[in-house]
Amino acid sequence: MTDMDTIVSLCKRRGFIFQSSEIYGGTGSCWDYGPLGVELKNNVKRAWWRDNVQLRPDMVGLDASILMHPTVWKASGHLDHFTDPMVDCKACQRRFRADKIDEEKWTHYCAATKGNKFDIPAGEACPHCGARRTLCPVCGKGELTDARQFNLMFKTFMGPVEDEAAVTYLRPETAQGIFVNFENILQSMRLKLPFGIAQIGKAFRNEITPGNFTFRTREFEQMEIEYFVMPGTDEEWHQRWIDERFAWYPRYGMRKENIRLREHDQDELAHYAKRTADIEYRFAMGWSELEGVANRTDFDLKQHAKFSGKALEYFDEETKQKVVPYVIEPSAGADRSTLAFLVDAYHQEEVRGEKRVVLKLHPELAPVKIAVLPLLKKNDRIVETAKRLCAEFRKRWYSVYDDTASIGRLYRRQDEVGTPFCVTVDVQTVGDEKSAADEKVTIRDRDTMQQIRVPLEKLDGIMTDLMAGKWAEVAAVADYKIPPRAGSD
Ligand code: GAP
After folding, report:
1. Residue of 331, 337, 338 to mutate, ligand 1, most atoms within 8 A of C-beta
2. Mutate to test the pocket of ligand 1, among 29, 173, 295, 296 (most ligand atoms within 8 A of CB)
3. What values do phi and psi take at 423, rounded to 5?
4. Distance CA 303, CA 75 (A)
5. CB of 156 within 8 A of CB of 169?
6. What phi-psi label fits residue 236: left (phi over 0), alpha (psi between -120 and 50 degrees) or beta?
7. Which pLDDT tens digit goes with each residue over 56-110?
8. What does the pLDDT look like over 186-195, one tens digit per residue?
9. Cα torsion at 398, 247, 280, 286 (round to 10°)?
């Protein structure tokens, strides 16, 4: 299992994810996606949007604003219920989630060993004196306050006057933007139940204990669906969505053994939920939520109808009656999914006695799809052909040209960022005074490191097949085979 430090270090080294405001010492739990990270995350979001909106006749999209009317949060229950219990250390002033504090290792100054300091694993007693944690787990000295409820919403002020009337909140979930637009969308798009509204956007939570890289942050992106159904059909639709969403991650290469479903216990359910199942990924820190699929019943529409005074109903032509639809909500994190795809793709292998780091990302998700590499950077015809090819590829697949190292090193660099295919232009491609151009290039597959040699004129169709996962079929064509050369990789 790949530990998080390895991923954090790769992400920084190769331009995926950086600490926010790093030159000022960093901002707690905020991260910036670099050139390759933004491509990867955009690809995750694009795949989600295409599969859940564009390929489905029963779905439409939305992009609602982050700042909303403050009453939204009263109606949704977030002002009253979106809280975590927290305690403060009276000595060092650190803040902890009261319900998670015993899951942390703790610092102990042991009287039985003349006050020596020990780090004791979570939940264990001191092996010398048998004491259990009663004080602050970090400084080991301060008493903790009684638990207080702490609202996770970021408060801000709308307009120039910072008074209570102007108070509003950064949205803690994108879902509410969908509920308050239910009537607008229903009428303007003339939709029939069941139908869904999908949205991707930023959400903000003042998490007490953020951490594990981009897993739990204070600013993050959600990919949410609110799927409206006839009351009474909600349980069946809920199960269908759980199955559909659980099947989505392996479709983009996530290993099935690394994901599981976990049913929420009754006492764990959110204030709006009748049943929730989480899709979890096996991170190094343990099984952790990627997505929650909840049956939110008619809670939200009824609440907004009550607080706004507007009816949020659906007219059923069959029964000639108005109903308040039930809602099934698959709610995924774009950052968490991106992180899980990264962790899952990370492999370390040994190739001819050397370490090879390779990100086996699905071609749809890989930030760069093709790297075009000239075998000799001093040969103008090779360079010109390679640059022309790269420009041509870029029209369909994000591609890069690189001539800054030897071919072996260039391959390794591309492996490490997950580029599925490298296309190499060499002397035979363009010809020289001794031999005519063969008008062929070498394609190398990232995962198998196999190589094939294909005619330039067929390249477009071949790359299309390769992007669709047909390496084995293409490589089986006798004309494309090249004998393996020692040390060619
Ligand atoms: N509308 C329902 C809702 O927001 P949630 O389980 O609180 O449900 C949904 O959040 C998803 O949003 C989570 O499964 C996770 O992927 C992502 N998410 C929630 N809090 C997050 C945080 N602090 N950092 C990163 N992602 C987060």
Report:
1. 331
2. 173
3. -115, 120
4. 5
5. yes
6. alpha
7. 999 999 999 999 999 999 999 999 999 989 999 999 999 888 988 888 899 999 9
8. 999 999 999 9
9. -70
The 3-state DSSP class for residue 304 equals helix
* pLDDT, tens only, 259-307: 999 999 998 998 889 999 999 999 999 999 999 999 999 999 999 999 9
Of 22, 14, 30, 34, whose CA–CA distance to 345 is shortest?
14
Please tell me if the CB atom of residue 171 comes closer than 6 angstroms to any atom of ligand 1: no
- Burial classification of residue 271, based on how many CB atoms lie within 10 Å of its CB (0-12 exposed, 13-18 middle, 19 or more buried): exposed
Task: Name the DSSP letter for residue 398.
Answer: -
Number of DSSP helices (H) and strands (E) in the chain, helices first: 14, 25
Q: Which atom of ligand 1 is nearest to the CA of 278?
A: 14
Total residue length of the chain: 489
Residue 246 and residue 343 in contact, taking contact as beta carbons nearer than 8 Å: no
Question: Considering only CA atoms, which residue is closest to atom 22 of ligand 1?
Answer: 216
Q: Distance from the CA of 270 to the center of ligand 1, in angstroms?
A: 12
Distance from the CA of 200 to the center of ligand 1, in angstroms?
Answer: 12
Residue identifier of the C-alpha nearest atom 7 of ligand 1: 173
Residue % of the chain over a pLDDT of 70: 99
Contact in structure between 94 and 144 (CB atoms under 8 Å):
no
Widest Cα–Cα separation across the chain: 85
Strands 354-359 and 31-33: unpaired
In short, whether 332's Cβ falls inside 6 Å of ligand 1 is yes
